[in-house]
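Objective 1b: paired records.
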Amino acid sequence: MATQTKAAADAILKDLYVGPVVEQINKKTYMLDQIERDSDHIDHTGRRAVIPLHTSRNRGRGSRGAGGTLPTAGVQGYADAIVPIKYHYSAIEIEDAAIEASTSNEGAFLNILNSETKGCAEDMRKDMQRQVYGTGDGLLGTLAKTAEETKTLELDSVQYVAVGDPVDVLVKSSGEKSEGVEAVTVVKRTGGSTKTIELSEKVKKATTSYGVYISGSRANESNGLRNIIAANRTLHEINSETAGNEYWNGVELKVGTSASETAIAGETSFEELADEVGFSGQGEVEAFLTTRGIRRRLADTYQSQKRFNDAQAVNIHGGYSAIMVNEIPVIADDDCPRTYAFGLNKESFKWFQQASPGWLDRDGGILKLKDGATAGTKQAIWQGWFKWYANLGCIAPNRNGVMKFCTDNNPS
């Protein structure tokens, strides 16, 4: 006698899909939300924005005896900070048959076209959040050791690299390919104490002077906190290393001695940074932004002194919570770079925007048919590009500070 089995009946059995689709991706964009909500929003037109700065006092002074020679006249110092617009894009491509197959509830849990267009806009915001914390040149990570003819690279950080990313491995100082590689895909990513990525193609040879960038994006991304709040760098075409331009430095505080020798950022470190900012610039720290690991260690010191418990956490905009240092909230943002804590004066930031987030529009339609392999032919595949023309500017970096080399968790 034959026995009917589940394996034999597989062709007639149905899959049970329990909808709706459950989100598995962190889409929070706290810092970007704060910039858009609390910073001056400037509609940018023309080639670039110019911010006039008052940079130095009149130094023509002195005390004399009666009838003495009067001091030589001095002048007030001024400079122009120049902010260019940056152009950011994200693309979608959808087969027309897939769109038609998902237009009804009977055919799919969600509408493919709506899902792809909405998801593209959300992903753009998440990437802009990354850029707001970035180094201004698009750097995702630096090679931690020399690599010879390999697909596997060890980086100092893989926090901002994801499987599927199209990347370039380039010389950091020049952007040249040299012995690196361009337009390859990240096929594997490993966090923890040893942080590595595996590429779809080998690099010929690369040293610790090489960095990883989103393909084509080097030097084209928005300014971020790590280059805005830094010392001895060029920002908005003003070089703070030039004698007399020290006013253009952000306030830096090293808690540990290096990236490999970190120290816990306790209450005193946060207070010291706030005091340095208040002394250096025409403004005070309004909020600290850092990682969960750094904030947890700060909270642990409070708990050991019986000064803090969860009930005393402060609720702030967007469903986030904070603990306080001298009435200044310390907020954890998941996109903050590991081992960093930023002390921010929100009024010093300006969001320059030439075009708000939206789709490239051709004759009233955001989608166009994909060009075929033969000139003049089209495929039944729709393409669209989401755009955002904007850049983050700062009128006074010295109103902001950063703590580096803080003991933190490695990204998992």
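Objective 1b, second protein:
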Amino acid sequence: MSFVSYRGGRITLGLSIHRPEMIPFTAGLMKQHEAIFLEEPPAEGFEDMLAGTLSVEDYLQPIDVEYPAFSRAMCHLLRELKTEGKEIFQVEPFLAALLDIHDFFASGGTPQELRRDSLLVPVYLAEQRATGSLLAYYRTVMTGSFEESLEAVKQFARHDAARFRLRDSLRAQALQRLLQPSRAIYVEAGVIHYHLWRLLHQQISSPGDLRLVFLADQALSTIGERGHLYGPGDQLTLLYVFHPELNQPRRESLLAARALVYSKLIAKDEIVEAPDTMPHLLNELACIRLAARLSLDDCRHLFRRILRTSTDEAYETVRGFLEDSALTRKSMRSADFSDQ
């Protein structure tokens, strides 16, 4: 393995979530660096958007963005950083290869025609397995038993973890070629890309020059809160990322069961009002805390009750169930004490 030297430089890997309330914290950290490496594939019109000759709306229009409000705010931040002299790069080889695959298929190509020695093949296979197991999970949850749904969650998490291992590996390799010595460098990544930290750490000859920042921790501290933002599904996926051969059935099943419930609790739509109140962070934190209180039997009991309910109804059902369970346990303890 070759190493990149960063004597006198500083590299920050910032793990964050793509929500509007994170923009001020992202801005504060990015401003401390000279070069910024974004977690996105090169897009047509990017340099024109940064320069202001292409509007943000026109730049984003052909791009399939999952969080529009966040993406718009991020573009305006990047424009500001560009005027301050920051160098900004889009580096995400896996997603870039995926776009090439889509274009290849759209032009009439088939999977069999992909060059065996190209990057497109492993990316295609990883994406195919993950997407296939995700569709299987959706089908199983709607029609299968609780136990079958648990297995579907675990199967998807394993394939998703393999996809993330490849994605993080490709990005680490690309960054190794692009990072420049003796510069303050910021690498953007989502919280699920924790493995990227280990890969970059292995590549840098002076690992002390690399720091890891969880931006949500900073955001939560401003409102007097603390806690991680890894839901049970992400926890299971990361276990498989770091331990591909993991064999802890009870632990895996509990996380899978909690993931089934958590997926019904979490807010699905982007919240754009009052970002300074941290609506997404507080919602995720509350749902993670609720799910963490559930046993395997609790999840089995709640699974069908909340499956076809709205997000708000599911949240209230689970919260009410836990409150009732706590009262029942308290009453039982009181009864046991009075019998003594």
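The mean pLDDT is 91. The beta strands are 10-16, 35-38, 87-90, 184-190, 210-214.
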